[in-house]
């Protein structure tokens, strides 16, 4: 029953058909090219249509049944076009050029279609937001609600394994790299001493970096260096502008050529598309700079607590549905300076093995004992809890003073979601304190964007310490800690950051206020967002109703445009992100790639295994070899951020991506995946089939 | 042998692969005997035994390949103390009982009286921060002497303009760490600007100064290395030292003789023990955050060269504050910044934007880009904080007059307060309590001035001034309360905001004595300085003088 509630996302009263706004681009040699709805729906499709879109169904059916041939289907697109766009959209030359050649698109046609693809939308839209920062996408069917579906497993404990030959090849690659590296070191140290001076003793000084410690960096990572730390300029929005650079083959140095490349950005943590230089949030920040300047000045406890800090902290607490919150000027430091304020010697911290470096940093500072458990494995956690509680402290067997279990809501390298329902059960039984780092899940997960608690419908007040960062979904910087009032008061007294670190700067605070308020909507003006049937089921079953922000918590000088104030834009962003995530994750799986993580996660790791493929993948996405040359920037991650063999490419999707962007990404992955032999799973669909069945894939369980 | 136990469970291995497996095993055995001769082989062997017991040939391969890498990891990682020999076997029922019985302490303790005082005395600024602020929405304006606003950059209009321009090109957040498309051109520009301003080869910026300081130290100093540190260093350095797990030796705060003594001790010890040459660092601050004293840099450099140490110098306070252009204490003493191996600094204090940096050689900076956790695992600095920092640096470079105004203000303030100090200052401002004066924790000098009630160890050029009481009440709590009274008195009578130095009592390695903290800015007029200093003097006399 949840399906229908999750689907409908129409915010206008017109009832558009299910026809997508943009036709998919047909490629030569793939017959199933037009979008699913331009053909008579198969029994399965129509069943899902009935189930998932009661309001659109009749109209869609009428449109599709009248469109029997491909030419009339194309015409149909023209006629129904206007219904999707709020503001008298017209089809640009791109769209018509696709339409006119949709059967036999040549590579030139495709190249032409995509020429200015990243900068110019297909439809004309009256908005100040740049298409290159936030893609325009009006089709109400390309929306989804991120919410727990009990029929889907939360976390598969055994990830899919590649065939053995892939593993062997991976090990051999590393063996080769290591042997070669040592050979080079051996000769290098003897014949090119000047290059090794910083690794060797000299004049009685020990080497600054030990030769051994830096081996991985010098001999393995260096080969990939042109894929890391690529310099950019401008906003890390839907697209990003790279500064072109060149360097010798050994990546010892890079030089900027002065040129720029605009590329589709599936790498930044810009989940909700709030990284933007225009629009309501940027205008609010503009006003804040004029009013407050840019400096947070000294530490909070000296006189550097502004009214703006209090307002932000109140709003954050309201957003999360807890009593109080505290903001810190850096996300990393939020963990590293607050965990030591909570636990100390005699306490035990139990930490997921894949927890973020900042958490490990904080735990190490705290002096508490540390145990780790297998990633996201609640049974392992339970076994460990039983052991540590029954055994007590090592040697003395005295009971632990307290046990703090630190987990993340959404893991940044795995895309896996915390199994919160089971975690809470364990918490009740074993009485530990829960610390959930929602750096990636806050804003990105849950029907209201309130993170994993929202996603699973669990009362956030049951979690002792909620932590998160503003660098991701909110396009700002810094982090927060939230919980009960006693907790926050205690932390204000004991957090290192409050007494000694700089306070958060006013423009950053304003960005947080504006983006958060626009997700929540602001009461009282323009009461509830349109679309009354939304969340009917979820609200009923949910202990916490996440309400709008009250306008009194916001600064009086604050003026947000109506779509932000009434929460419609925020809601659209959440729903677009949810659709994009689920679509790409499902699509890649259907194409036969090994993909980790939950399908509702906007972080989608695709496994590459062999180290050489990392480099190729990154380069081939940037310099595409197919007909469509639109560059795509990706993040590749390898050891030590992941286990040695499971090197991967990690996509981070955003609400600013349009469906066309995801289509393009899928095509690009398909191209590269075939070229590099990456489809180690079972391919069940062709790429054009995946694109045509996008909505069906998103709606289905698997 | 471990290999035999491995191949005894080839449950899920296809038959054709078995010969391959055997081949690999024998290769492994020969390699293992070679390993035995390599130092560190026990670690590798231990790893083999514990890993992948049910997937033998995979672990054989893996062991060969990962061994090198894993060794690196094992050196620096908390593995947590496992159950070990001490393990007591219990039945499930017993465990259940123990679980039921176990009662954890509350997550947070009740706040005590001092805590309440701390929380209730944090002022809130309504409207913009700066030299003159409001403490309530409609309240009167007070002079703010609590923020590091040395050159008045907090209210600089030019910087605001630059920030808005940056906003319109870059947005606010960077949405990624610098390794993953978070390196923006303006970051590179700022790094160049800092490096050329200071005169070092390179620089690397961080998103927060506190995190920079506590993360740079462990990026270089590891277990087994030796760090000689000043006892008066700030909290962020303490945290960095703690993370590094190096051997720490303290020398008395600001005492160069003691530093040399410690260095000699270390040398002697190392000679006696022999063994491998280890990395050795001296860690100190330019102007100390805890009391405003200045490091005797030339002497430290001399010792550093003599005993072959590397110097990590935290200039979080002094960068932008001292030196003819505000380049920090290297400029103050006229030594090239490149002689200091790592200069840490803050853009949040001297430049009034945000973030921190480390300047040094290319190798030093590039090493951090991959090995310093606060740089690798954190989103990069918002673009507007970088561009405005660049602007602030160019202002510092082009307007040395700002520095002389600041110094004149500091001198005026110190002269007025010196009436309450043991050794009143001479007319010319030559400090009678020099830079090498005693620490806050040492017994104060003899008291020729019978009106003396305070003692200011801060350097005469330091805009950060800490005021200690000469005859404090017996308990720290009473002293904090007394100082808070002074703070309240000054704000209510003279409209000047100062603050008690906020500490994390119970978490500091060496508890600093309570003090008042005053920050001087070049944007105060002489009148304001006079009024503030006199007001503070009166309040001190009124609150602390009456006790005697
Ligand atoms: C789980 C987690 N915690 C904390 C952080 C640090 O946040 P920030 O980048 O804002 O410093 C990150 C960022 O990567 C993260 O993934």
Automatic annotation (TrEMBL), chain A:
Q: Where in the cell is it found?
A: Endoplasmic reticulum; Membrane
Q: Which GO terms describe its molecular function?
A: pyridoxal phosphate binding; serine C-palmitoyltransferase activity
Bias-annotated ranges (Low complexity): 24-46, 61-73
Biased composition of type Polar residues is found at 9-18
**Can you quote a single GO CC term?**
serine palmitoyltransferase complex
GO biological processes = ceramide biosynthetic process; sphingosine biosynthetic process
Q: Name the source's superkingdom.
A: Eukaryota
Give the E.C. number(s): 2.3.1.50
Recorded catalytic activity of this chain's protein: L-serine + hexadecanoyl-CoA + H(+) = 3-oxosphinganine + CO2 + CoA
Give the metabolic or biological pathway: Sphingolipid metabolism; Lipid metabolism; sphingolipid metabolism
Q: Which UniProt keywords are listed?
A: Acyltransferase, Endoplasmic reticulum, Lipid metabolism, Membrane, Pyridoxal phosphate, Sphingolipid metabolism, Transferase, Transmembrane, Transmembrane helix
Q: Could you say which protein family the record assigns here?
A: Belongs to the class-II pyridoxal-phosphate-dependent aminotransferase family.
PANTHER family, per this entry?
Answer: CLASS II AMINOTRANSFERASE/8-AMINO-7-OXONONANOATE SYNTHASE, LD36009P
Question: Can you name this protein?
Answer: serine C-palmitoyltransferase
Q: Which organism is it from?
A: Saitozyma podzolica
From TrEMBL, chain B:
Q: Which Gene3D superfamilies match?
A: Aspartate Aminotransferase, domain 1, Type I PLP-dependent aspartate aminotransferase-like (Major domain)
Q: Could you say which cofactors this protein requires?
A: pyridoxal 5'-phosphate
Question: Which intervals hold domain Aminotransferase class I/classII large?
Answer: 150-431
GO annotations of cellular component type = endoplasmic reticulum; membrane
Q: Write one Gene Ontology MF term.
A: pyridoxal phosphate binding
Q: Where is this region: Disordered?
A: 427-446
Which pathway is this protein assigned to? Sphingolipid metabolism; Lipid metabolism; sphingolipid metabolism
List the GO biological process terms: ceramide biosynthetic process; sphingosine biosynthetic process
Please tell me which top-level EC class this enzyme sits in: transferase
Q: Which domain of life is it from?
A: Eukaryota
Stated EC number for the protein is 2.3.1.50
Q: Which UniProt keywords apply?
A: Acyltransferase, Lipid metabolism, Pyridoxal phosphate, Sphingolipid metabolism, Transferase
Q: Give the similarity note.
A: Belongs to the class-II pyridoxal-phosphate-dependent aminotransferase family.
What is this protein called in UniProt? serine C-palmitoyltransferase
């Amino acid at each position: 029953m949840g399906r229908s509630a999750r689907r409908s996302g129409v915010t206008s009263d017109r009832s558009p058909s299910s026809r997508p706004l943009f036709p998919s681009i047909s490629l030569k040699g793939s017959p199933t090219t037009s979008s699913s709805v331009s053909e008579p729906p198969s029994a399965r499709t129509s069943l899902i249509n009935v189930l998932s879109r009661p309001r659109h169904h009749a109209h869609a059916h009428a449109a599709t049944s009248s469109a029997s041939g491909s030419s009339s289907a194309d015409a149909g697109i023209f006629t129904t076009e206007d219904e999707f766009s709020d503001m008298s959209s017209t089809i640009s030359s791109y769209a018509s050029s696709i339409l006119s050649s949709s059967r036999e698109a040549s590579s030139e046609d495709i190249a032409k279609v995509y020429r200015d693809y990243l900068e110019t939308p297909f439809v004309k839209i009256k908005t100040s937001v740049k298409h290159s920062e936030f893609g325009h996408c009006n089709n109400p069917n390309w929306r989804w609600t991120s919410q727990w579906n009990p029929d889907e497993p939360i976390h598969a404990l055994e990830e899919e394994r590649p065939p053995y030959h892939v593993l062997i090849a991976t090990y051999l690659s590393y063996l080769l790299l290591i042997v070669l590296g040592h050979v080079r070191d051996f000769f290098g140290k003897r014949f090119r001493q000047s290059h090794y001076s910083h690794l060797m003793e000299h004049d009685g000084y020990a080497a600054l970096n030990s030769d051994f410690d830096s081996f991985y960096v010098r001999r393995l990572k260096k080969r990939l260096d042109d894929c890391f730390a690529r310099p950019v300029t401008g906003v890390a929005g839907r697209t990003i502008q790279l500064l072109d650079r060149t360097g010798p083959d050994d990546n010892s140095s890079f030089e900027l050529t002065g040129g720029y490349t605009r590329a589709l950005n599936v790498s930044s943590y810009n989940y909700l598309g709030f990284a933007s230089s225009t629009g309501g949030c940027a205008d609010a920040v503009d006003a804040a700079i004029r009013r407050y300047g840019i400096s947070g000045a000294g530490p909070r406890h000296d006189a550097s607590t502004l009214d703006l800090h209090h307002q932000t902290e109140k709003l954050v607490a309201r957003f999360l549905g807890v009593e109080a919150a505290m903001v810190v000027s850096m996300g990393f430091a939020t963990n590293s300076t607050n965990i030591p304020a909570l636990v100390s010697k005699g306490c035990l911290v139990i930490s997921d093995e894949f927890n973020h470096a900042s958490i490990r940093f904080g735990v190490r500072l705290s002096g508490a004992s540390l145990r780790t458990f297998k990633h996201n494995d609640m049974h392992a956690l339970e076994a460990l809890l039983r052991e540590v509680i029954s055994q007590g402290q090592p040697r003395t067997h005295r009971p632990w003073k307290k046990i703090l279990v630190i987990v993340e809501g959404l893991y940044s390298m795995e895309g896996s979601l915390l199994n919160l329902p089971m975690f809470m059960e364990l918490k009740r039984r074993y009485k530990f304190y829960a610390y959930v780092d929602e750096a990636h899940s806050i804003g990105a997960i849950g029907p209201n964007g309130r993170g994993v608690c929202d996603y699973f419908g669990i009362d956030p007040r049951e979690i002792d310490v909620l932590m998160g960062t503003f660098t991701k979904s909110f396009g700002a910087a810094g982090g927060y800690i939230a919980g009960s009032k006693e907790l926050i008061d205690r932390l204000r007294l004991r957090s290192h950051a409050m007494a000694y670190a700089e306070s958060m700067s006013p423009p950053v605070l304003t960005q947080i206020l504006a983006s958060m308020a626009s997700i929540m909507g602001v009461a009282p003006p323009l009461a509830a967002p349109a679309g009354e049937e939304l969340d009917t089921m979820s609200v009923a079953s949910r202990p916490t109703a996440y309400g709008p922000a009250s306008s009194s918590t916001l600064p009086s000088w604050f003026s947000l445009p109506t779509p932000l104030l009434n929460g419609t834009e925020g809601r659209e962003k959440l729903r677009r992100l949810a659709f994009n995530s689920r679509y790409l994750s499902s699509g890649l799986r259907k194409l036969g790639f090994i993909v980790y993580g939950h399908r509702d996660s906007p972080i989608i790791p695709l496994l590459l295994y062999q180290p050489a493929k990392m480099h190729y993948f990154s380069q081939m996405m940037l310099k595409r070899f197919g007909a469509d040359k639109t560059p795509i920037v990706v993040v590749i991650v390898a050891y030590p951020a992941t286990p040695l063999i499971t090197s991967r490419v990690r996509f981070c999707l955003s609400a600013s991506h349009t469906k066309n962007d995801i289509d393009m990404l899928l095509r690009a992955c398909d191209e590269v995946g075939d070229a590099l032999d990456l489809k180690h799973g079972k391919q069940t669909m062709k790429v054009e089939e995946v694109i045509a069945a996008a909505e069906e894939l998103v709606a289905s369980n698997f | 042998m471990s290999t035999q136990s491995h191949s005894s469970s080839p449950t899920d291995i296809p038959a054709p692969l078995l010969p391959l497996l055997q081949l690999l095993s024998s290769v492994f055995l020969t390699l293992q005997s070679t390993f035995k001769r390599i130092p560190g082989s026990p670690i590798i062997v231990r790893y083999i035994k514990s890993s992948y017991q049910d997937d033998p040939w995979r672990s054989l391969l893996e062991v060969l390949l990962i061994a090198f890498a894993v060794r690196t990891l094992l050196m620096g990682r908390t593995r947590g103390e496992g159950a070990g020999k001490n393990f007591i076997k219990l039945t499930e029922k017993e465990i259940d009982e123990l679980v039921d019985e176990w009662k954890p302490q509350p997550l947070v303790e009740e706040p005590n009286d001092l805590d309440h005082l701390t929380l209730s005395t944090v002022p809130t600024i309504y409207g913009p921060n700066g030299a003159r602020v409001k403490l309530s929405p409609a309240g009167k304006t007070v002079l703010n002497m609590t923020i590091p606003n040395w050159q008045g950059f907090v209210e600089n209009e030019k910087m605001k303009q630059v920030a808005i321009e940056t906003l319109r090109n870059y947005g606010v957040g960077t949405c990624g760490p610098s390794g993953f498309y978070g390196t923006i051109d303006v970051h590179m520009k700022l790094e160049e600007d800092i490096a050329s301003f200071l005169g070092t080869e390179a620089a690397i910026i961080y998103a927060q100064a506190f995190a920079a300081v506590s993360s740079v130290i462990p990026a270089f100093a590891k277990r087994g290395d030796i760090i000689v540190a000043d006892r008066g260093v700030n909290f962020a350095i303490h945290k960095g030292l703690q993370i590094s797990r190096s051997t720490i030796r303290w020398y008395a705060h600001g005492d160069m003789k003691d530093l040399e003594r410690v260095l000699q001790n270390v040398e002697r010890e190392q000679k006696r023990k022999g063994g491998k040459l280890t990395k050795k660092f001296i860690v100190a601050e330019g102007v100390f955050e805890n009391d405003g004293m200045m490091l005797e840099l030339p002497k430290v450099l001399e010792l550093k060269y003599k005993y072959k140490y590397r110097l990590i110098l935290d200039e979080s306070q002094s960068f932008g504050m001292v030196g003819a252009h505000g380049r920090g204490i290297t400029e103050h003493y006229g030594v090239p910044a490149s002689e200091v191996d790592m200069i840490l600094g803050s853009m949040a204090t001297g430049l009034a934007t945000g973030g921190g940096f480390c300047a040094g050689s290319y190798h030093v900076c590039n090493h951090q880009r991959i090995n310093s956790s606060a740089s690798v695992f954190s989103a990069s600095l918002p673009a507007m904080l970088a561009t405005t920092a660049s602007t602030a640096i160019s202002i510092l470079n082009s307007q040395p007059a700002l520095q002389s105004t600041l110094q004149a203000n500091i001198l005026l303030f110190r002269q007025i307060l010196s009436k309450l100090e043991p050794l009143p200052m001479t007319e010319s401002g030559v400090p009678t309590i020099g830079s090498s004066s005693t620490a806050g924790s040492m017994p104060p000098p003899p008291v020729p001035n019978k009106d003396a009630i305070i003692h200011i160890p801060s350097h005469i050029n330091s805009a950060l001034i800490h005021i200690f009481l000469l005859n404090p009440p017996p308990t720290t709590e009473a002293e904090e309360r007394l100082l808070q009274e002074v703070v309240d008195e000054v704000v209510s009578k003279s409209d000047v905001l100062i603050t008690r130095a906020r500490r994390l009592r119970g978490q500091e390695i060496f508890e600093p004595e309570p003090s008042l903290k005053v920050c001087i800015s070049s944007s105060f007029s002489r009148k304001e300085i006079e009024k503030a200093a006199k007001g503070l003097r009166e309040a001190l006399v009124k609150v602390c003088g009456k006790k005697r």
